[in-house]
Specification:
single chain, mainly alpha
């Protein structure tokens, strides 16, 4: 093979690798931002409301024994 052809192939591989890493970094940043937003939202959420949403059937009825 020609040296120029090998050099071009190597350069192309490096560009593809850099592009792939850039896309991966962007995806990681977006995931981190989403996780931070979710953490903030959960910290500010009303615990009683979250429990009611998770188990809406609890606490709706009161049984009296007399």
């Amino acid at each position: 093979m020609d040296i120029a052809l090998l050099s071009m192939a190597l350069s192309q591989g490096q560009v593809q690798q850099q592009a792939s890493l850039s896309v991966m970094k962007q995806a990681m940043d977006q995931t981190l931002q989403g996780a931070d937003g979710l953490t903030k939202m959960m910290a500010s959420a009303d615990v009683a409301a979250l429990q009611h949403i998770a188990q809406p059937h609890l606490g709706g009825n009161i049984d009296f024994k007399g």
